[in-house]
Amino acid sequence: MDFEHETINSNKDISVKFQYFEDNGSEISKHWHRSLEIIYLITGKLEVNINGVDYSLNENDIIVINTLEIHSTICKYGNTAVVLQVPYQFCENYIDNISTTKFICNPTITDEKKILSINDLKEILFSFYNIYNKKELGYILKINSLIFNLLFILVNKLSIKDKKFDTNKSDKYLSRLDLIIEHVENHYSEYITLNSAAHELYLSPEYFSRFFKKYIGTTFLKYLNNIRLEHAYIELVNTDTNIAQIIERNGFTNYKTFMKLFRAKYNCSPNEKRKQIRNNNN
């Protein structure tokens, strides 16, 4: 649940990370990784934010998250999805100029040729899922062929060259963000101010504030409250803990502030959200 650098480990038997998810409701805060990530939504809905741009995924939608793109997801009412993550080194071995190659694949695309290519990606992921589940003799050979076929489509049909999108340059700034986000994640339940966070990281408050807003796209206080809300949300929908206790142990000191922020983000009160999740699970 962290806005942090995420280390992607491949499945033990294949060169990528492939997972099937059944999600009853969750929120993954902003984070990044060097792997190329593809989310294919099978059922339900999913909200994805990539570099400050919101995308709403419905059943049978697919989205590609490029290496080092800052992204987050919200699943409000449950969904099922498959997620494929291809390590950067794997891409680097087979794709020329990968550091300045950006793949464009999301639900807003209307170009008919691109839609055909996106449908091909869906078929590949569906085949990937079936073959990997069965693990018949020689399945790794077939899986590898599907990986290369998927990358071939992305490179030839759904990519652009963009010098502004240079992952080698982005690494420097994201390494500094690691320190900031780690500090917030370790201390979000405590009393934190912009000044105290900047002091912990040996940065001036002014620089810290500008740097954070530039690369995260929001103020430090809004980000901190969002992290607190995410932790409170998980506790709310997965436990019977009293709401006042949830508020207190997730760093909020003002009941009214929490209720206002919660309603602004989830369009309901905490009690209403708890009932929604339970009704959907039933």
Automatic annotation (TrEMBL):
Entry keyword annotation includes Glycoprotein:
no
Give GO MF terms, alphabetically: DNA-binding transcription factor activity; sequence-specific DNA binding
Q: SMART domains per the record?
A: HTH_ARAC
Q: Which Pfam families match?
A: Cupin_2, HTH_18
The protein's matches in InterPro entries, at most eight in alphabetical order, are given as: Cupin_2, HTH_AraC
Domain (HTH araC/xylS-type) ranges = 178-276
| Alphabetical keyword list | DNA-binding
Is DNA-binding a UniProt keyword of this protein? yes
Top-rank taxon, per record:
Bacteria
Which protein, by its recorded name, is this? AraC family transcriptional regulator
Source organism of the structure: Clostridium estertheticum
Give the source lineage, highest ranks first.
Bacteria, Bacillati, Bacillota, Clostridia, Eubacteriales
